[in-house]
TrEMBL record:
PROSITE patterns per the UniProt record, alphabetical: ABC_TRANSPORTER_1, ABC_TRANSPORTER_2
Classification via InterPro entries: AAA+_ATPase, ABC_Ni/Peptide_Import, ABC_transporter-like_ATP-bd, ABC_transporter-like_CS, P-loop_NTPase
SMART domains named among the record's database cross-references: AAA
Provenance organism: Dactylosporangium vinaceum
Listed Pfam families: ABC_tran
Domain named ABC transporter: residues: 3-248
Domain of life of the organism encoding this protein: Bacteria
PANTHER family the UniProt entry points to: DIPEPTIDE TRANSPORT ATP-BINDING PROTEIN DPPD, OLIGOPEPTIDE TRANSPORT ATP-BINDING PROTEIN APPD
A molecular-function term among this protein's GO annotations: ATP binding
Family listed: Belongs to the ABC transporter superfamily.
Bilayer topology annotation: Peripheral membrane protein
The entry's keywords: ATP-binding, Cell membrane, Membrane, Nucleotide-binding, Transport
Annotated protein name in UniProt: ABC transporter ATP-binding protein
Length: 261
């Protein structure tokens, strides 16, 4: 798998919110996309899946395995979502359907993309719930999102994202709303999944300390543009842009900066 983004420009209401962003990654790569709120990192990820807000205009290039995605119709992009590309959103409480049992939501992409029966999807959902270390998988897949803790809901979202064995996993601020202990468990889960599956990981956050735990390289965004790129250890040790320097200073105030992946 390869993802290549070149000179990506996204306009909303006639204003450029992403301007000239580029990045690339392949199988097994771990790339961080980091920046302050409003820097354009989430919009960049959403552009890959064709999930930008209505009225957006996109120019530049987004190639998945050499195939251009910019300009593709929604039906074609929908075939990529949940199959070749898995997405984990920041707020599982809003990303998950509140009136559907979590097992059905974990297995949904298997039914859509591979024609699994309801029973097959349920059995697979139980195995995936166990894989993401949810307690009592047989019982938990029968519950609704509101019956789970924040950390458990995020694990459900991860199980749904990896259900079809995607070659690219995009994680958009997946630990922001979680306490430090739960954050560590979720990061370990991403680490294990990428190591075992060989998938590529695009991890989005505003926290350089979190990136130090999970990725090797990072692209720093500010005001929709690339501020600098480099290894996470290099960005922490010798940032060259004021935004990166501020992110590094904040990282050193947390306990996350220890050893990278």
């Amino acid at each position: 798998m390869s993802l290549e983004i070149e000179d990506l420009r996204i306009e909303l209401g006639g204003r450029a919110v992403v301007d000239g962003v580029g990045l690339s990654l392949g199988d097994g790569d771990r790339l961080g996309l980091i920046g302050e709120s409003g820097s354009g990192k989430s919009l960049t990820a959403l552009a890959v899946l064709g999930l930008l807000p209505r009225g957006s205009t996109v120019t530049g290039s987004i190639r998945l395995d050499g195939r251009e995605l910019v300009g593709r119709g929604d039906a074609e992009l929908a075939r990529l979502r949940g199959k070749r590309v898995g997405m984990v959103f920041q707020e599982p409480a809003t990303a998950l359907n509140p009136v559907r049992r979590v097992g059905a939501q974990i297995g949904e992409s298997l039914r859509i993309h591979y024609g699994f029966s309801k029973r097959q999807a349920h059995e697979r959902a139980v195995r995936l719930a166990e894989r993401v270390q949810l307690p009592d998988p047989e019982q938990i897949v029968q519950r609704y999102p509101h019956e789970l803790s924040g950390g458990q809901r995020q694990r459900v979202a991860i199980a749904a994202a990896i259900a079809t064995g995607p070659r690219l996993i995009i994680a958009d601020e997946p630990t922001t709303a979680l306490d430090v202990t739960v954050q560590a468990g979720i990061l370990d889960l991403f680490d294990e999944e990428v190591a075992e599956s060989g998938a590529a990981l695009l991890f989005i956050t505003h926290d350089l300390a979190v990136l130090a735990r999970i990725v090797t390289r990072a692209v720093v965004l500010t005001a929709g543009q690339v501020a600098e790129t480099g290894t996470v250890t290099g960005l922490l040790a010798a940032p060259t842009h004021p935004v990166t320097a501020a992110l590094a200073a904040a990282a050193y105030q947390t306990s996350f900066v220890a050893s990278g992946p």
